[in-house]
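DM from R.C. (forwarded with permission)

"hey, sorry to bug you on a friday — could you get me a structure for this? deadline for the figure draft is monday and I only need the backbone to look sensible"
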Amino acid sequence: MSGFQCKAFYVGHDRCGMKVGTDSLLLGSWVSLSETRQVLDIGTGSGILALMMAQRLTEQGTANAIVDAVELDTAAAQQAADNFAASPWTDRLTAIQADILQWSSQTRYDLVISNPPYFVAGQQLACEQRQQARLESSLTLAMVLTRAEGLCSQQGRIGLVLPLERLVDVSAWADNNGWYVARTLSIRGRQNKPVKRVLIELTRESIAPDHQTLTIHDADNQYSEAFQALTRRFYLAF
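My reply, with the result:
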């Protein structure tokens, strides 16, 4: 079976269009869980982000926390359900096979998190599953943000990982909808390389923004101390 082993859980991903990658591991390690009891993961895929949220909520002692994970693709949703069932947090995690644009919930979430399709449609990928997970064909960034807004509590937050060039789109959406870019973490592979990814946290509250940068590898091509410190609770190597 193809998958990824974290310290506290295993993620099978052989039935998913997108495999476990650094983007999700960074977002799941970084996003704030302060005053968070209900989490929604949009487009969960293998369930990696939802599992990370369940682990962190348990570690911080948050009672009665729940993590719901919605996935359109039937095979991926079943794999997420299997991964949840094999984890230590089965009572917190729920995998839901549904179209997020049609799905409704009575719950209003303290955090809506997503590693969404973030390349604009136009190219054609060989794998239909990967096409759906990677490209904005049936689910655009604006759709993700609008659905996340509707499912957030009044104090809720939205957490995303995107290519740096999409930050301007998120900022424009926030400006037009009464939200604010509260935190960002720009990610570069090495010190002499340009930033390629950005982690984003949105709130309805206007606060002084916190913008930081993280470099994954140091000059010796080893994982940097900052990267290790951020992801240590998940990576086996640290």
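R.C.: lifesaver. Residues 122-127, 130-136 have pLDDT under 50 and may be disordered.
me: no worries. The domain at 3-231 is CATH 3.40.50.150 (Rossmann fold).
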